[in-house]
Design a protein that fits this description.
Elements: E1 8-25, E2 30-43, E3 46-52, H1 58-70, H2 78-88, H3 97-116, H4 121-125, E4 132-137, H5 145-158, E5 163-167, H6 170-173, H7 176-190, E6 195-199, H8 206-218, E7 221-225, H9 233-239, E8 245-248, H10 255-261, E9 267-270, H11 278-290, E10 294-297, H12 301-309, E11 314-320, H13 321-330, E12 331-332, E13 341-342, E14 354-355, H14 357-361
Parallel strand pairs: 4-5, 4-11, 5-6, 6-7, 7-8, 8-9, 9-10, 10-11
Antiparallel strand pairs: 1-2, 2-3, 4-13, 12-14
Helix pairs in contact: 1-2, 1-3, 2-3, 5-7, 8-9
The chain binds magnesium ion (MG).
Organism: Amycolatopsis suaedae
Domain Mandelate racemase/muconate lactonizing enzyme C-terminal: 145-246
GO molecular function, one term: magnesium ion binding
């Protein structure tokens, strides 16, 4: 019996920018497009695919800085490759784009490793569960009441997703009455049987966020994401206990950040395409478990689902409208969140997704 695995032969990265259907905004940012950086790792006969939602400047970082650390390594030795990349970027600064680039390579390596072993990714990592809960996410502050109601209707009635999230905190928390009007509209649109979440993207000051938490509880809102800036850990803690669970963590790029944050939130959000990939995700989830907290996946739904299936203290995947649209456009083999859960395939090797090169070419930067 031989146990050889192929070595990493090549690593490539390309960036694609996909326009949004119209202007979109949350409490503290507006945007009209989303950039995705896609990494392909070739190891023997297989290609692994990873990605991050980050700026195109990740491309030269991946090609010129990270790839040389990994080429020639056994494809399944992902933790060793990850440590080599982390060591190389010390003087570049780990948080931010560097960590996003690291994540995309890490995820492509894990996918290639699983394909080299002819295993589904969730089989390689080891499943805790077959089905992963999802929540639908969008509800941008730029939407009209009719557009918001239509989106909520599509999620809950057409796709039968029993958890939804909308944006509040419009214009840095300066439009509280409209925020509450939209929450009321959302509750009335989805009915009593659907979990309703809100995301203020750090738009409120602490006192206002505490008052909002009480008002949100009246509409049975059970998740209050970034009620204040996620840099204000004490402020996050002060909003807890006023009704909804407090969640944050989407700007977490390294383990120490999450370790500092975990005492101040009810649920820790991890973005697998920002935090350094699955290698760091698993350690972050362990930090949360040690504090008796769940984790929830921020965005990148078709990658996050596999990690969710392999993580014990996992709550749900954010099925973010923009990323759902982009992944369904660019990749073959996407999961369908209809019914409110997804089940990573146990037959397709890796994460089961492949790039549609002819479609993607139209969006390449
Ligand atoms: Mg958020």
């Amino acid at each position: 019996m031989t146990c050889d695995v192929p070595a990493v032969g090549s690593i490539d990265a390309r960036a694609y920018r996909i326009p949004t259907p119209g202007p979109e905004a949350d409490a503290t940012l507006t945007w009209d497009s989303t950039t995705i950086v896609v990494v392909t790792v070739r190891a023997g006969p297989v290609d692994g695919l990873g990605w991050t939602y980050a700026d195109a400047t990740c491309v030269p970082l991946i090609r010129d800085v990270l790839a040389p650390q990994v080429l020639g390594a056994p494809v399944t030795d992902v933790p060793q490759s990850w440590e080599a990349m982390r060591g190389r970027v010390r003087n570049l600064g780990r948080p931010g784009l560097v960590s996003c680039a690291l994540a995309a390579v890490d995820l492509a390596l894990w996918d290639a490793a699983a394909r080299a072993l002819d295993l589904p990714l969730a089989r390689l990592w080891g499943r805790v569960r077959e089905h992963v809960d999802v929540y639908a996410s969008g509800g941008f502050t730029t939407q009209s009441s009719e557009e918001l109601a239509a989106q909520l209707h599509a999620w809950t009635r057409q796709r039968s997703i029993p958890r939804v999230k909308i944006k509040i905190g419009e214009s840095w928390g300066s439009m509280v009455e409209r925020d509450l009007d939209r929450v009321r509209l959302a509750r009335q649109s989805v009915g009593d049987g659907v979990e309703l979440y809100v995301d203020a993207n750090g738009g409120y000051p602490v006192g206002q966020a505490r008052r909002m938490a009480s008002a949100l509880a009246a509409w049975d809102v059970t998740w209050f994401e970034e009620p204040v800036s996620s840099d204000d850990l004490a402020g996050l803690g002060q909003v807890r206990g006023h009704g909804p669970d407090v969640a944050a963590g989407e700007y977490g790029y390294d383990l120490a950040y999450f370790a500092r944050m975990v005492p101040y939130v009810d649920c820790l959000q991890i973005d697998i395409t920002r935090c350094g990939g699955f290698t760091e995700w698993a350690r972050v989830a362990a930090v949360a478990a040690a504090a008796n907290r769940d984790v929830s996946a921020h965005c990148a739904p078709n990658l996050s689902a596999h990690a969710g299936a392999a993580t014990a203290n996992f709550r749900h995947v954010e099925w973010f409208a923009d990323h759902d649209r982009i992944e369904s456009l660019l990749f073959e083999g996407c999961l369908d969140p209809a019914g409110g859960t997804v089940a990573p395939s146990m037959t397709a090797p890796g994460h089961g997704l492949s790039l549609r090169p002819r479609v993607a070419a139209d969006y390449e930067l």
